[in-house]
Design brief:
It is a single chain. By secondary structure, the chain is mostly helical. The protein contains 4 helices and 2 strands. The two termini are 26 Å apart.
Amino acid sequence: MVGSNAFSYFNILNKAADASWIRNELITNNIANVSTPNYKRKDIEFQTYLARELQGKGTLDQRVANADLNSLDASVYTDSSSLSYRLDGNNVDIDTESAKLAENQIRYYTLMDAMNQEVSRIKMVLTNN
C-alpha cells in the first residue's frame, strides 16, 4: 500500500484486487472438489465491507480519502455449510462455480486495468511539469 491519502483510491483498488485473487483461488478449489463427498464450497466476503466503509456523508472522493484500509480485510467463509445439493453431502454446483469464476475474472481484470490507468495518470503528472 502507498502511505498517503492521495493514493487512497489506488489502495482500495489494490485491496479489491487482492480479494478478487483470493476468490479466484477459492472458486478453483471449489471446482476441483466438485466430486469430493461432504465438501462445502468456500467464498470470500469483501464487497459488503467495502460498501460499508464507503457509506456516509461527503463526496465519494472524500469517503475514499477517509477510508480505513485496515477494516477492509476480506474474510473467507464456508457457504451454506449445513446444506447440500447432493446425496454425498457436497454443496458445489459446477455451473454456478463456472459462472462465478468468469464473473470474478472479469472483475479482477477490470481492477487491474483501473490500477494501471491510475499509475499512468500519476506518471504523466510526475513527468509533465
